[in-house]
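task queued by scheduler; priority normal; single chain, no ligands, no partner chains; default sampling; output format set to structure tokens
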Amino acid sequence: MSEPKPRTRIQEKNRARVLEAALEVFSKHGFRGATLDEIAQEAGLSKPNLLYYFASKDEIHVTLLEGLVDTWLDPLRELNEDGDPQQELRAYVRRKLQMSRDFPRESRLFAQEIVQGAPRMKDGLATDLKALVDEKAVVLRRWTAAGKLADIDPHHLIFSIWSLTQHYADFDVQVRAVLGEGRDPIAEAEVFLDTLFTRLLAP
């Protein structure tokens, strides 16, 4: 069987345009509410041209999610077993907050998929995500056993970090409505969460 031909620069550029447009549309309307016509319009392409690069709305969505899961795992991968436990975990919190600042659409896309039961990424959650979280949970237990970290369930600690950081992307409108104009939710959250986890994690 012959290898597929490599994509040209224009093909790669147009695929990227479609994915960027789809991210905007999906993050606003969800998978069910989005249409190929809307994605094509956002990308500045005709619908037939869009379908040259992706066969369906589902294929576009899956492509986005596959890239997103890998990106989402990167901050946890950086947790270094040889580092200071409290510093490593507080740095992880800061990295997750930065992702909420820099990738709010991606966060909302991920949240929408999870709320719907993860029909397009359930396998990835049960394999790549679970394996990484379990691996880091072992590290956290070692730190606790060594007296370097409070005795806290490692899985629920990681869940709490996800909840307390991704909230600022997924509920941005609510957060800004409550805080009012002229305040930086992410900057304030970084100070608050650093204080919170410093106290929580102390052995």
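post-processing summary
- The chain is about 75% helix and 0% strand.
- Residues 114 and 121 are 9 Å apart (CA to CA).
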